[in-house]
Automatic annotation (TrEMBL):
This is TIGR00659 family protein. It comes from the Bacteria. Keywords: Membrane, Transmembrane, Transmembrane helix. The chain crosses the membrane at residues 6-26, 38-59, 65-82, 94-114, 144-165, 206-229. It is found in: Membrane. It comes from Pseudobutyrivibrio ruminis.
């Protein structure tokens, strides 16, 4: 199997798509929040690779083509934002302040936890970009001296948790305003949270799409400041 994976150009892509399809089917059939398609696909892929004795490098050689779609898919998130542009202009101040508050809360939380757990500087800066999209987070982690591979894992985990629990938390704290829910999901859980926001509604999806870009820029700026605290 390992030899087949090494010689096949698209085996990694096939495994990834089949795994995600399985997760999407489980989510549709049972409707249970923890049957998140991305989470299921990660678990299934890991089990498959371990069972068949396939190393990550061999798998990634065939799956890397999916990564090429990351940037254009992120750009496409501008479409729902464009459709709700008038709403954005009416609430511009609240939107900017809300995203800024979310970014600062994320960074401050990592700082406090790092202090309490006695993390090294490298481990600390690795976690700082946990709530922004992978494309930006990898660059931030590398620039600050963190472990990029761990940063990617943390970003994915953060997004999956936000996707699973985001709507429940909004209901728990009686947050009913669509703009607020969209900003919260996008700022805290980046693109994976935005996928959930789009399921909830058009306004939530538009605001969440905006949050990804603005939160990414603000994190780049503020992370440099927070990185010097430890």
């Amino acid at each position: 199997m390992s030899e087949f994976m090494a010689t096949s150009a698209y085996a990694g892509v096939t495994i990834s798509l089949v795994s995600y399809g399985l997760g999407a089917w489980l989510k549709k059939k049972f409707g249970f929040g923890f049957f998140n398609p991305l989470l299921i696909s990660i678990i299934f892929t890991i089990i498959f690779l371990c069972t068949c004795g396939i190393n990550y490098e061999t798998y990634n050689e065939g799956a890397k083509y999916l990564s090429w779609l990351l940037t254009p898919s992120t750009v496409c998130l501008a479409i729902p934002l464009y459709e709700e542009f008038e709403l954005l202009k009416k609430n511009a101040k609240a939107v900017i302040l809300g995203i800024t508050a979310g970014v600062l809360t994320s960074l401050a939380t990592v700082f406090v936890l790092a202090k309490l757990m006695g993390l090294s500087h490298e481990n600390y800066v690795t976690l700082l970009p946990k709530s922004i999209t992978t494309a930006i987070g990898m660059g931030v982690s590398e620039e600050l001296g963190g472990y990029v591979t761990i940063t990617v894992a943390v970003i994915v985990i953060t997004g999956v948790i936000g996707n699973i629990l985001g709507e429940f938390i909004c209901k728990l704290f009686r947050i009913h305003e669509p703009i607020s829910k969209g900003l919260a999901l996008g700022t805290a859980a980046h693109a994976i949270g935005t996928a959930k926001a789009m399921e909830i509604g058009e306004i939530e999806g538009a605001m969440s799409s905006l949050s990804i870009a603005v939160a990414g820029i603000l994190t780049v700026v503020f992370a440099t400041v927070f990185a010097g605290l430890i």
